[in-house]
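User: Here's a chain of 311 residues. Predict its fold as tokens.
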Amino acid sequence: MRKEEFVHLCRNWPVQGGYSLAGAVVPLVRTYLFGNHRRKLPVIWLEMNDSGDNNISFLNATSPYVGQVFTYMIDLLYSNPFMAAQGPDALQLLTNAAREYSGKFTLVVEGAVPTKADGLYTVIARTPERPLTAWEILRWLGPLAEYVLAVGTCASFGGPSAARPNLTGSRPIQDVLQRPVIRVSGCPVNSDWFVGTLAHLILYGMPEVDDQGRPTLFYRDTVHRHCQRRSYFGQKVFAEKLGDKECMYSVGCMGPATLADCPYRQWVDHVSWPVKANTPCIGCTNRDFPDGSTPFYQSLAQKRPKEGGRS
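Assistant: Prediction complete.
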């Protein structure tokens, strides 16, 4: 498949295919790897300071299920949220993977990086001498990776982990690494966005990104553009309270200021999304989420930039 066709597939599959994008791209990747005698994408996966929502969203992937992504797309060399190994055994696996696959692996990172107290707020491993913090391990692995993929808004922009008052000094991945980072933001990330980006890395390499480092495969248009309630907005018919069927701009919807394809990509096995469930978009893919979205139920016109949000 040509790259242009793949891009079209990613952007239009929810409309044309009717189910998970992963169900379309995993067979493509499997055929490509087998036909070209290529190995799966080697991945080192780190979870740092977050709520664990992104790997849970990924585990909820269907058609195919997450096990098929592991089987046919990626070679998971190390993952502190997923692996069974613990303690010294896990650290040895990480050390071996970093050495053997230096310059060849993709580093997937969930969560922001605590930097206060020398990063002691998130410890990935321990040695007899000292704890190894997420901050230290990220600075070790980041320069060795072929690609760095920030999964979720905390890793991408700081997110809730770096929201006011940010007692841990949490920061987005790019602030620590000072190298190109593919930002697949969302709180949590949609499994299609993540799997589709991985597939692009395997098939074509680095995807096109916007000025904030997000793949334009999924972050090209505003939520507002394709919202099923946009006709109400055009007629200036707004909800008076949560649960009303009209446009929810008046009760805090961030759709006009948020880039994501949630209205037709959808969630919960691709059958719903916030507005369909009668709650406004809160702008979870944005650089300034959540501080820039609060108060959540105040109209976008009334929201103001907050002072001292990130530290």
